[in-house]
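We store sequence with structure; for instance:
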Amino acid sequence: MQAPVDYLTDLLTETVNALANSFVVAVPRFVTGLVFFAVAYVAIKVVLAVVRSLFRGVYPESQHLVARMWVTVIGVFLWFGAVLVLLDILGLGQVAASLGTGAGFLALGVSYALSSMIEDAVSGVYLLRDPDFNPGDRVTTQSFTGTVRSIELRKSRFEQEDGDVVVLANRDVEKRWTKEAPE
């Protein structure tokens, strides 16, 4: 039988050795993670700057909101991917896999919950890109006739002849509208 002092000495020695071995394994991973994070940060900033300038060329100034939305979506995906890779570098691959799976289910739930808002945004992009649907145009929708006052990402505003402003979700406008012939 081992004496209590010898047991405590052995326990302390094993603990210190295990801690030292953990540091030997963790320090290179941590340094690699820092280098990866620095490179990913610069790369993501460059990619987003290129994407931003590309979308500025594709979308006119009046549609800058659409371009910013796309840049934000691309940025979120890039940063999420970088975080997952960083977790894997740090030896937390199972955590990264769980986060990836969880994020997929979360995105599925959010997209279902926000499906009408997403439909409005997609319809808004179509209306903003449509050369026949512009502010100042007189249009007839399913429920009224009015002049297009503004087109936003999720809704459009119409001014009726009596001066009232009607706000409609873009999905309702995009389904069916007719441009009136100029007088």
